[in-house]
Amino acid sequence: MRVRFVGLAIALLATAGCADRKPSSANEYFNLASENLREGSYTQAVENYRNLLDEYPFSEYSEEAELKIAVAQYKNASCPEATAAFTDFQRRHPTSPHLPLVGYLLGQCAEQQMRPADRDQSASQNAHAYYQALIQQHPTSPYAELARERLAHCRETLADHELEIAQFYSFHKNDKAAETRYLDLVNRFNDTDVAGDALFQLGELYRKENASDKAILAFAAVEYHHPDHEVARKAQAELDELLNGEAPPSGDPLAALKAETGRDRTIAIAQTAHPVADSKQGRRGGAPPSSGFGLPGASGPFGGRGTGPYGGSGPYGGRY
């Protein structure tokens, strides 16, 4: 009986020794860390990828290990750390084929930290900037198409923020400040549904001030640019009442309103400062797509449960 116990103890010690054995090559480290990542042991994955980089800094796995450290942090919902790691990767590998993915996940990290429209919008602005940069630098990448979808969500949120500020000024009878905010919103975010609300409320503001000509242009702009918006019918009723049987303005009423208020110069300067054109995107509010990583607001470009452009095999041959 004692012999059996001794034999069992030796076997257990041998097994434990194998399990705790330090990887003896870069390949072993990489495989171990990648297995940690697949199993969801993200902290352990980061540790093993870092050990690989420390002990084999010039191995063939170095670049991919740096990327996967950031990926593991992102999947672990450690967005600030992931953002720093992705940014370091961009700096160290300016010609890497992974850069479209990195740019997209930087946007996702910022989007994870976005706050409601009535709060600080720094994260929304960061996400907007990351997605715009990706679209500009890698326009044909599948990740650029995903970025365009997510950019629409960021723009709706930023426009909502501007609308709340304009409404605040209007509520407190500061009509001039409210007008400025409404016009700036429409200048910057006319591709959003929020701009339809802003134009309608701007028309109401002008009507209250007896500025009928501007009110007509604002209400007509709702019909012209946002015909499917829920306030379009109300805008048409207001317009009919103001026109009283006369013909509506010809051409683009928003362009005429910008010219009359001097905002056409403002938008020209803004377009020069931000060369990436924002095409009209989806409808207001849409929630981010479901995550392949189990995180809200991310769209899983690594395959598996996600909805990334490369399906279930990961974007680079299934290695992720």
What report would you give on this structure?
The protein has 320 residues and is an all-alpha fold. Helices cover 66% and strands 0% of the residues. The protein has helices spanning 2-19, 26-39, 42-55, 62-75, 79-92, 99-112, 122-137, 142-171, 175-189, 194-208, 212-225, 232-243, 253-261, 263-273. Helix 4 (62-75) runs antiparallel to helix 5 (79-92), helix 8 runs antiparallel to helix 9 (175-189) and helix 11 (212-225) runs antiparallel to helix 12 (232-243). The protein is elongated, with a radius of gyration of 27 Å.
Which characteristics define this entry?
320 residues; 0% strand; mainly alpha; disordered C terminus; 66% helix; elongated; 14 helices
Write the layout of secondary structure elements.
Elements: H1 2-19, H2 26-39, H3 42-55, H4 62-75, H5 79-92, H6 99-112, H7 122-137, H8 142-171, H9 175-189, H10 194-208, H11 212-225, H12 232-243, H13 253-261, H14 263-273
Distance between the termini: 49 Å
User: Which radius of gyration do the C-alpha atoms yield?
Assistant: 27 Å
Contiguous low-pLDDT stretches (5 residues minimum) are: 5-18, 266-320
Task: Please summarize the sheet with the most strands.
Answer: none
Could you estimate the helical fraction of the residues in percent? 55-70%
What average pLDDT do the residues reach? 82
- What is the element string, with H for helices and E for strands? HHHHHHHHHHHHHH
User: How large is the share of residues in beta strands?
Assistant: under 5%
Query: Count of helices?
Result: 14
* Overall spatial form: elongated
Structural class based on helices, strands and sheet pairing = mainly alpha
Number of β-strand runs: 0
